[in-house]
Write a structure and sequence with these properties.
By secondary structure, the chain is an alpha/beta fold. The chain has a single domain, classed as Spore Coat Polysaccharide Biosynthesis Protein SpsA, Chain A (Alpha-Beta Complex), CATH 3.90.550. Helices cover about 25% and strands about 25% of the residues. It contains 6 helices and 12 strands. Strands 1, 4, 5, 6, 7, 10, 11 and 12 form an 8-stranded mixed β-sheet that branches. Strands 2-3 form a two-stranded antiparallel ribbon. Strands 8-9 form a two-stranded antiparallel ribbon. The longest helix has 14 residues.
Length: about 230
């Protein structure tokens, strides 16, 4: 970890209770294998150097499957604790946060983002330690258009927008209070839940890494960030 250090205990919450319907097939995407290791295993591995404890949310019906994957990977999966998820991502994260002490930093990360860079994790945690809440972002590289209710569209300035990634990092006591709010449909990530309580501008942004994709569709399984371009 080099000079990286926080003064608070760090907890990582890896959310993996989803059904992964957009991937197709019978197996949820977080359990699919990439070069001999499950996506979820690779994701957990990213946080082992940083977290005092790793908490993974899982669907109750997936427990036996995950146990078999852990056994097959023969000790490659870092130590972690399981929390049963809810019907939504919001409820799953809320369940996990209830098991974490107030005096800590928490990094909340998608279970299907196995390529987050160490520097992204470090920068987010350090920024959250000083500013209470931090998220990684990347510039938008494609043109954007705004769809109006009448079906028409118009071009917008992409320099005004960024693409949001995880981990999203917070002081535990503050994000736990935010998750006591009733669920809303515009809660698309943890930062939006946090801002609903603490206001716009309460979350700082840090640079993410472009390889930190969210594996969603079959073509994403072909991505290999460790393979150099020829």
């Amino acid at each position: 970890m080099g000079k990286w250090k926080t003064t608070m205990p760090v907890y990582a919450v890896i959310t993996a209770a989803g059904k992964g319907l957009r991937m197709g097939g019978d197996l949820p995407k977080q359990f699919l294998s990439v070069d001999g290791r499950s996506i979820l295993s690779r994701t957990i591995d990213c946080f082992a150097p940083y977290a005092d404890e790793i908490v993974v949310t899982l669907n109750k019906e997936a427990l036996a499957l995950w146990e078999s994957i852990v056994s097959e990977e023969s000790g490659a999966v870092p130590t972690h604790r399981i929390v049963i998820g809810g019907e939504t991502r919001f409820q799953s994260i809320k369940n996990a946060l209830q098991t974490i002490p107030d005096e800590a930093l928490v990094a909340i990360h998608d279970g299907v983002r196995p390529y987050v860079a160490p520097v992204t994790i470090e920068n987010c945690l350090l920024a959250a330690q000083s500013a209470n809440a931090a998220i990684p972002v990347q510039p938008v590289v494609e043109s954007l258009r705004l769809l109006e209710p009448d079906g028409k569209s118009r071009a917008v300035d992409r320099s005004c927008y960024v693409s949001v990634q995880t981990p999203q990092c917070f002081w535990a006591d503050r994000i736990k209070k935010a998750y006591c709010c009733p669920y809303r449909s515009d809660f698309t990530d943890d930062a939006s839940v946090y801002e609903a309580l603490y206001g716009v501008g309460s979350v700082v942004v840090v640079e993410g890494n472009w390889q930190n994709i969210k594996i969603t569709r079959p073509g994403d399984l072909l991505f290999r960030p460790w393979v150099k371009d020829r």
